[in-house]
Design brief:
The protein contains 3 helices and 5 strands, in the order ββααββαβ. By secondary structure, it is an alpha+beta fold. The longest helix has 10 residues, at 60-69. It holds the Pfam family CxxCxxCC.
């Protein structure tokens, strides 16, 4: 069995410090990726359960207004149609469990999260920070 390599903690804003992703890396991390802005689409919001199929036919800016009021999104880009999920004061995603550091909606998580780290600021790398 190959022993995993030790990886230094990354600085989230310095892509050159990010670790090359390998299977199993996440189990030793504090979920640093869940502190970065998560851009989602309407289909993600439907999967999460905060927008229903009928409401999806409404203008996205109306949906954004409601979701901002409810504290689910912090930003909507009308040009791209992307919503940004709310982050808490410590930058944690709204859906990150503070104690376990695991996603509370993992089975329903957005495509952005499902495809990380293949997509993102540095594809194939992640902002790994070890658990203490």
């Amino acid at each position: 069995m190959k022993k995993p390599q030790l990886v230094a903690a990354a600085e989230i804003d310095r892509l050159d410090t990010w670790a090359k992703y390998y299977k199993g890396l996440c189990s030793g991390c504090v979920a640093t990726c869940c502190t970065m802005p998560a851009e989602v689409r309407i289909k993600d919001l439907i999967r999460i359960g905060v927008v229903d199929e009928f409401e999806a036919g409404e203008p996205p800016k109306n949906i954004a207004k409601r979701l901002k009021k409810e504290g689910i999104i912090e930003h909507f880009n009308q040009k791209s149609g992307l919503f940004t999920l709310t982050r808490l004061a410590n930058n944690d995603c709204l859906y990150l469990d503070r104690k376990s550091r695991l996603c509370s909606i993992y089975d329903k998580r957005p495509d952005t999260c499902r495809n990380h780290p293949q997509v993102g600021p540095r594809p194939g790398y992640c902002a790994y920070q070890p658990k203490n």
